[in-house]
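Thread amino acids onto this structure.
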């Protein structure tokens, strides 16, 4: 067989024409320093803030600092797998988290890794943890739809609406987390998806919260984003934004979501730690200068969208831990100025048996009656007035030996109202029970009942109404009102019940 030279040339020409080179350009740098959850990478000139960086052994990081010849990255994995001199590649992507129905009922960390042992999450939708834009004023509508917490004291005097940001603050062990958890429990059947974000909590505390939510059937509509005290500052820093991204998915799809940040004090500590390691200039109390921006950027993502945008809502309940009741400290004042009101829990009230230990004097909801039903507005107005007068007279009565009958009557009424507002843990109350309880107090129906027996009297009366007059509760819950007909039925029920209760004095 003879091979012709021109055939060889022709074949080579065809090969040359069909030959393609695949050029791949990568933005690459190398690690010059690693430690305390932070890596400094030389190079990466084109890196962006919040961009994902890939290190060896499948460890990921996120750019937080852009310097002249290097970038500061927070490590989102095991930093022990990274050493100085390792190659770091920019991915061109940002940190994302799985969102949607697939994460409901799951316990995950801030980068979407499941922690509950129920297998991997197969998600159809992902959302960036950090976003550049929040809904504009035009895309929002006023907060006017109630988000019932199940706590009589809150729903009557410090109402929270869907799309609102209401701060819960107080010293440690005053019941902040209990209020938040019971609010989640009360959303059962209300078509509200809940996200509980644990930031730097003890593992035992997080396990107890998940156990409570599971026990009361709340995990059916709840996602837990968990970072324990043993986790790195990087994960604690990302946790609130990750939880918010999950809630935003439901909000943007015309649904309602509630996100609880427990707590932003530890979040601020984590950010301060990272910032100091990254050698950012410290400001007041060693926090970086943009700590206010960090929290406002997070909380501004809560909104009630306009009907044109689907009418969905994202409600935020951030928690702040104060030190010795100091609400004028740096982080508490920052978050108070960002939110639409605050619920302040006081240690002295808690220790004296008033639970929830809410100081009504400095607690406020800037949405107010707009986030209340007609029935609640009707009874809550009188309740607020009675308690305001009681607080004023109680302070005055400490210095007075003799009190006139009107003053004594007002003090007696106030004491009984405070008893009615007391509530046990994991006992959220629906609208009808709240209205009936408050009506008992403001109408003077328990004025002659001994203070020690008011709570049991109220509890038994609610049971009596459920058995003998079930239509009262059903009508109030369906119409959200206390109409004259229902009010007459309630008065009749009170009279009948009191005749059956000898010796209540």
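Threaded sequence (505 positions):
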């Amino acid at each position: 067989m003879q091979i012709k030279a021109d055939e060889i040339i022709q074949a080579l020409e065809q090969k040359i024409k069909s030959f393609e080179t695949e050029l791949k350009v990568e933005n690459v740098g190398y690690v010059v320093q690693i430690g305390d959850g932070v890596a400094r990478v030389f190079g990466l000139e084109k890196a962006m803030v919040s961009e994902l960086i890939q290190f060896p052994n499948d460890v990921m990081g996120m750019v937080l600092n852009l310097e002249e010849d290097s970038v500061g990255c927070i490590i989102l994995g095991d930093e022990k797998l990274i050493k100085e001199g390792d190659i770091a590649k920019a991915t061109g992507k940002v940190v994302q988290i799985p969102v949607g129905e697939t994460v409901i009922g799951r316990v995950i960390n801030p980068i979407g890794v499941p922690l509950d042992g129920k297998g991997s999450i197969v998600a159809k939708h992902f959302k960036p943890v950090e976003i550049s834009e929040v809904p504009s004023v035009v895309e929002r509508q006023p907060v006017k739809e109630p988000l019932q917490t199940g706590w009589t004291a809150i729903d009557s005097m410090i109402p929270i609406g869907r799309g609102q940001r209401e701060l819960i603050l107080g010293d440690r062990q005053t019941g902040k987390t209990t209020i938040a958890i019971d609010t989640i429990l009360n959303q059962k059947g209300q078509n509200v998806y809940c996200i509980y974000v644990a930031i730097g909590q003890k593992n035992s505390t997080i396990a107890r919260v998940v156990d409570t939510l599971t026990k009361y059937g709340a995990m059916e509509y709840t996602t837990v984003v968990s970072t324990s005290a043993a986790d790195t500052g990087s994960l604690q820093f990302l946790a609130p934004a990750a939880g918010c991204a999950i809630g935003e998915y439901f909000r943007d799809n015309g649904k309602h979501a509630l996100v609880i940040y427990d707590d932003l004090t530890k979040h601020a500590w984590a950010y301060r730690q990272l910032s100091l390691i990254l050698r950012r200039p410290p400001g007041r109390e060693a926090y970086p200068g943009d700590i206010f921006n960090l929290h406002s950027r997070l909380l501004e993502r809560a909104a009630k969208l306009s009907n044109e945008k689907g009418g969905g809502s994202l409600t935020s309940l951030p928690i702040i831990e104060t030190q010795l009741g100091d609400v004028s400290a740096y982080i508490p004042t920052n978050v108070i100025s960002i939110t639409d009101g605050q619920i302040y829990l006081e240690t002295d009230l808690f220790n004296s048996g008033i639970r929830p230990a809410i100081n009504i004097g400095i607690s406020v909801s800037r949405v107010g009656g707009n986030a209340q039903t007609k029935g609640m507005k009707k009874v809550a107005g009188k309740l607020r007035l009675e308690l305001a007068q009681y607080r004023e007279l109680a302070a005055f009565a400490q210095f007075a030996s003799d009190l006139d009958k009107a003053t004594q009557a007002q003090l007696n009424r106030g004491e009984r109202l405070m008893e009615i507002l007391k509530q046990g843990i994991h006992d959220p109350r629906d609208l009808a029970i709240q209205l009936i309880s408050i009506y008992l107090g403001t109408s003077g129906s328990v004025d002659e009942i001994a203070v020690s027996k008011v709570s049991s009297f109220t509890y038994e009366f609610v049971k009596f109404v459920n058995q003998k007059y079930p239509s009262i509760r059903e009508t109030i819950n369906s119409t959200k009102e206390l109409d004259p007909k229902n009010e007459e039925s309630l008065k009749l029920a009170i009279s009948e019940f009191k005749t059956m209760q000898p010796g209540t004095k």
